[in-house]
Write the structure tokens for this entry.
Amino acid sequence: QQQQGQQQQQNQQPTAFQKSLQQQQQPFQQQQQQQPPQAGSGGIANWLLTRNGNDNSNNNSSSNSNSSNMFASSGPGPASAPKSGRLSFGRRGSISQANPPGTYLPIRELSTYSGNRWQIRARVITKGDIRKFNSTRGEGQLCKVDLKDETGEISATFFGKAVDTFYAMLQPGQVYSFARGYVKAANPRFDKGQFVITFEESSIIEPVVEETGIPGVTYDFKTLVELEHLPVNTLVDVKAVVFGANDAVSFTAKSGREMTKKEIGLWDPSGDGGHTVDMTLWGERAGTTDVRVGSVVFLKDCRVSEWQGAKTLSSPASIEVDPNDPQASDLKSKFEAAQRVKPVMRQVGGGGGNSSGEGFKGRRQSFAELKQEDISLSVQQPGMPLDPNVRTIFRHNAIGTITGLPTERTPMYPACPALVDKFQPQTQAGAQPEQRLCQKKCNEEDGVWRCAAGHTCQQPRYRYIGRAQVMDMSDSCEVNFFDEVGKKLYGCDAEQLQAAWDQEGPEEINRRLLWRKVALKLRSSKEIWQDTERVRVNVDEVSEVDLKKEGRLLLAEVNAALGG
């Protein structure tokens, strides 16, 4: 027992190394005793006041002045220091000064150091739609508004239950007081400005009844031709005239969500004789926005997008239809004058371009022009990812005259009528897959028709597949057509044409098509055939030429050439 007691006494005595370590830690322990407690411990405000009092008693008047302004020189927050020691604590322990009762903090003074004890008074400039999203925590919702006071603008976002609480109350153009929000740095991809505000269900928002000097919506308009030089996701203000509008359509996205969109064609007098751009509205706004051809629209914060090489607009924060503004009257007069001289020819959904219809999918081209453009096509290698910097497909609009049809072979083939499962990459488990016709070419063997997939039948179904030579004033072009286009060209099903082919003869049947003038929507692609690159041009759509519309277009071109 005596030996155990001596051993315990020796263990309690510090070793030489421990004594040296204690001597080294003494200065740090003394300095740590002067450090403030952690934020949220309840004693930081008392520590600050006590520390300032001790400094005042030990330093001269100049050091007292420096100590009292310790907050004025730190961070980008307000320069004024608290006079009575009233401190508040924001997110992550940041220190901010609470607004005196009845006063409002200017928007331009908000920053990430402002905490959440501020109060602002601002006008709601724009109010976006409620958007649903899915995250790891489940389904959520958000909406955005833009706020403005005499000093500046800032965007604010409401999440979750805050949307249910405040969305119906907030109305564009009205003034409200906002409190208990959090300021964070803006995301340049989705927000404008340096900071944004996040409001929660516990935030306080109240309408302001008295009149204020807060300005309303202001615009910084860009012309439609300027959009061609702006990067994607840029937010712009636009004033334009509606030259066409499609009906709202609903569809199911790949994610399974039901979506609604509406496409509107916009015109302004910029560029050479006017410029056009398509705008897409989504969600509830697509179904409720009612515009007519000739309406003037002022758009706030439209997002610049790009679709198949053409600049487009989408999701404006606000839309003013036929505003009571001199700029709107002047713009409408220019549109009406331009329609009499050089009317807009393209349809909505053609991307953008000048008012005569030029622009992707709406551009009228000669065969010489489209052949020159097709030179820049690249071949898509099988199994290789798509390169966004190269083009593998071009689409063209052209008018041509059919000058040649082959007679050595029929413009149809015997197709297999067997049903096969349609490819569905996202088929739900247990769901019945859709079916389609096999449509592979059949060959007759011992009185039975057989396709390459092994299906057999007694009688195949004929489908169109053919070639035609078309020409305009600049050049000629060989085009390929398939079943739907063949029905419009020949005016009957391939089954009926097959029966008449032997009776009437190919010359008589082709004579009905030769020297007909048709409007064509073409798709060009480059392929490798027998180790040689070639451009293949397919007809996607064919229709009769609208002679009245074509005459107005030619007359407009003549007047433009004469300067009339």
